[in-house]
Amino acid sequence: MQEETKVVNQAVEQQEEDINEVIRIRREKLQKLCEDGENPYEVVKYDKTHNSGEIFANHEKLAESGEVVRIAGRMISRRIMGKASFAHILDIDGTIQSYLRIDELGEMYESFKKFDIGDIIGIEGTVFVTHKGEVSVRASSVKLLSKSLLPLPEKFHGLKDPDLRYRQRYVDLIANPEVKKTFILRSRIISAIREFLDNRGFIEVETPILNTIAGGAAARPFITHHNTLDIDMYMRVAPELYLKRLIVGGFERVYELGRQFRNEGMSVKHNPEFTLLELYQAYTDFEGMIEITEELYQYIIEKVLGGNTEISYQGTEVFLKRPWAKLTMADAVKQYVGIDFNNSTIEEVYKLAKEKGLELEEGLTWGRALYNLFDMYVEEKLINPTFIIDYPVEVSPLAKRKPTDKRLTERFEFFITGREMGNAFSELNDPIDQKSRFEEQAKKRSQGDEEAQMADSDYVTALEYGMPPTGGLGIGIDRLVMLLTDSFSIRDVILFPTMKPKGK
Q1: Is residue 376 included in any domain, yes or no?
Q2: I need a labelling partner for 380 at 20 to 30 A (CA). Which of 62, 212, 277, 417 fits?
């Protein structure tokens, strides 16, 4: 074992020496370029005419016309064969091959031979297809646009360490082309969301990120301090209360797509800052939000996935075609846990839970017990899209009560692949009831519950002016992107996820 460890350590030391030698040589090359008046960092512009994707799509026409194209990107491979060479250039669309000959480039060819893998270069030339059928650019000129002083990771067995990939996303994007595709798809998903809502008369708005009250969600906030005002402020945990103020003010359809901040745990499903869509529509209810949710998903699928509603997520088949399943929370617990809350008192619930060997904290109300059993034993089983409706009022401080059962609210969350993907309800617009619920939340907060909502007296004042019947919906964008890109971790769909500093 000691001998094996010694061999491994020697290999690591040798690899570090090799890398240091590469860096030394590259810096010497840069110094020589600067001494010759060819500092690549002084290049300020290069007029590209085409990306690789455009050339592949139109290569027959470009080759026939002999049109001169100018491409630019990172050189990721090179094969020098005396008086001719091949190089592959990576740009936003992918990689394209270039063919370079000394008799066409002259002194530029000798300069090219000194370029390094990872350098950013520009190539001008004409399009042709090699005898092996590869679309290529025959270079008539080549220019170094930026020097890479560090070797690309694939030269040393690739960038596979997840921690390093997230810390150095810029290298991850170079080394792993599929990562770039994920974030391009994320951008297309967000564009489709905005297009869907704009086409339906919603207005995109911006609300404060720094708040004097952390309201709109049961979450622990980040706290900062405003020096001039000499007050503590909170990074927003949700934009809900401000968006509903706009409904009071006369806007009938509003939405915000932006970052939220919650000082909570981190996991494959949670990042301290994340992207949330919240929308509110006057004169509708949570049933209207169910319709919007299904329509929005179908719109995104049509725009981004070509209409394919059958997808695979981490090896599990998921069927997204509407209509989606809908269950009350009580029926879901009855189906998956075997306890009938509709016909049981809280005492009977505890007895049944004990008989089944289920964990249930002592002293819970009927509604809190229902929610806890659902959260612990049902959520993970909801693989295909499922709306869970009729949430207990104890866990829904901003939702309207269900007229036929005051213990419940007109609220739903929808679940896919065993994860909560969104939350909606018929918005509580009774200022007296809202004030009472804020007081109950404040009481919990004073008892040590840091996730209980803070009382917002100004929001109650807004409701006292009158808010029309309103439906509201929130959808986590990161989890949506995870689903549609088959990404395991939320860090795979956030360009720069929160990371602990090295050495901490």
Answers
A1: no
A2: 277
Number of domains comprising the chain:
2
Residue 341's pLDDT band (cuts 50, 70, 90):
very high
User: What average pLDDT does range 95-102 have in this prediction?
Assistant: 97
Residues 146 and 261 grouped into a single domain: no
Q: Is residue 7 part of a domain?
A: no
pLDDT at 19: 85
pLDDT at 486 over 90: yes
Do residues 51 and 198 both lie within one domain? no
For residue 239, cis peptide bond before it (omega within 30 degrees of 0): no
Residues 6+ apart with CB under 8 A from 6: none
State which residues form the domain around 421: 177-324+384-492
286 in a structural domain: yes
pLDDT of amino acid 396 = 94
CATH code, 99? 2.40.50.140
Instruction: Examine the domain organization and report whether 210 and 303 are in the same domain.
Output: yes
pLDDT in tens, 291-331: 999 999 999 999 999 999 999 999 999 999 999 999 999 99
Q: Are 301 and 321 in contact (CB under 8 A)?
A: no
Which residue matches tokens 């297809």?
129
Distance CA 122, CA 101 (A): 15
Please report which helix (H) or strand (E) contains residue 333, including its range: helix 329-336
Rounded to two decimals, what is the model's pTM?
A: 0.91
115 and 208 in a common domain: no
Least confident interval from 7-21, 27-41, 166-180, 456-470: 7-21
Contacts of 251 (CB under 8 A, 6+ apart): 203, 205, 282
* Cis peptide bond prior to 323, omega within 30° of 0: yes
Single out the residue of 327, 298, 309, 280 nearest to residue 470, CA to CA: 280
Judgement on whether residues 408 and 265 belong to the same structural domain of the protein: yes
- How far is CA 452 from its chain centroid? 26
> Cα-flanking dihedrals φ and ψ of residue 485, to 5°?
-110, 5
The pair of structure tokens assigned to 395 is 């866990």
Residues 59 and 199 in one domain: no
State the sign of the Cα–Cα–Cα–Cα dihedral 396, 320, 482, 337. Answer: positive
**The domain spanning residue 194 has which CATH number?**
3.30.930.10
Of the candidates 380, 361, 371, the residue with the CA atom closest to the CA atom of residue 333: 371
The CA radius of gyration of the chain, in Å to the nearest whole number, is: 29
